[in-house]
Amino acid sequence: MTIKQTRVRVIPKAIASLGVSGPLVFAIPYDERFDNQLNAIGLITPLAVNRAILPQDVGPVTRFNAEGKGIVHRDRPKETAYRQIEWTWEQWNGPYTETVTEIREVPYERYPRTFVPPPGVELSVLATLDNALVIATPAINLQQANAESVCHMINIMLEAFGECDVYREDLSRIVRAPVRRLNWRALPPGRRTWEELEPDLRELIERQPQGNQSPLIFRLKEINDKSPDFVAIGEAGFRDYVVFGFTNRNLFILESPMIDNATYVFGSDWESLARLTKTDLIAGNLIRERLIHRNNWSRRVAALFR
User: Strand runs (DSSP E) across 61-210, as ranges?
Assistant: First the structure.
C-alpha cells in the first residue's frame, strides 16, 4: 500500500488494519523522478546499495530528526542565556590607535527551554531479491508504544518524497546487508595550518548567520591550532559538524554551531564513533566533556592538552 499525504499525526488506519505481527519498513522504490529529492537529502545518485545517511533537513520533520528541538516554556520565569559575538573597537596605543577584536559573550533574557534530542532516523539504500533498489527507514514494530516513532518515520518519507510504501521486513522482499554510513567526509590527512584548512570549511562557515560566523571561525581556528592529525566534515544530516582528531591522545573534538551551544569531546576510537547515528553520538555515554561556548571555553580546550 502507498501513503500519499502531507503528514500523519496518528498511524493510518489502513496500516493498523493490516494485522502484521512483525516489523514494518517504510520505503519508496527507486525511480528517476526522485533524483532531485534524493540529492536534496544527501543521497547522491547514482545510488549504491547498502549505503545509509542521516537525511539532510528539507523541512521541519527532517530538521527535528537531524538537530532536535527546544521546547520553550512560556509559563515559567525568564532566565539568563548567553550568545557569543565578535566585538571590535579602536584602542589608543601610544602615538596611534589600533583596531582590536575579541570574542565576547552577551547575556540576554529568554524563557527556559528543554532540549529534545534528535531521533536520528537514517535512510538506507537496500536491494530486493530481484535487485530493485528501495530507499527505506529502519524496521519498526507496529505497536502503540511505537506510535510516535512510526509516525515520525512516515513523515520523514512524506516530507522528503511526498509518498511512501509499506513493506514487511521479509528477507524474501528486502535483502538487508551490512550498511555503510556516508555521514562523514575525511579531509586529506596530516597537520594543516588554518590558511590551508579554511577553504575546506568556507562553505560551512558561510551557511551560518552573519553574527555567528566570527565566533565559529574563532573556535575552529583555535582547535586547529592544536595540530590535529585529521579533520572530518559532516555530510547530509551531519552538515555543519566538524571533527578534529588527535589520535595520539585518543582525543576527538566535535564542533558545530548547531548543537546546544557546546563543543563535544570524545575519547573513543574515531572509526567506531563515525559508525554511530547522531542520536547515539550526542545522547550516548561516549561524551568525555561538554564545553559550553562561554568565556572559559578557550581555557577548557587548552586544559585538554595539558
Answer: 69-72, 79-93, 96-110, 113-116, 123-127, 133-136, 164-168, 180-181, 184-186
Residue type, 228: P
Nearest-10 crossing angle of helices 210-224, 297-304 = 20
Cα distance between residue 293 and residue 121, in whole Å: 28
Global pTM reads 0.76
Question: To 5 degrees, how large is the angle CA 128–CA 133–CA 134?
Answer: 90
Helices (H), 174-268: 194-206, 210-224
* pLDDT tens string 228-239: 998 999 888 888
- How far apart, in whole angstroms, are the C-alpha atoms of residue 212 and residue 217? 9
Question: Whole-angstrom Cα distance, residue 290 to residue 283?
Answer: 12
Contact 138, 56 (CB under 8 A): no
Residues of the chain with pLDDT under 50: none
What is the pLDDT, as a whole number, of residue 244? Answer: 93
Q: How many Cα neighbours within 13 Å face the side chain of 191?
A: 9
Query: Which stretch of DSSP H or E encloses residue 274?
Result: helix 270-274
Torsional sign, CA 102, 107, 110, 116:
positive
CA quadruple 47, 63, 141, 182: dihedral sign: positive
**Cα distance between residue 6 and residue 157, in whole Å:** 10
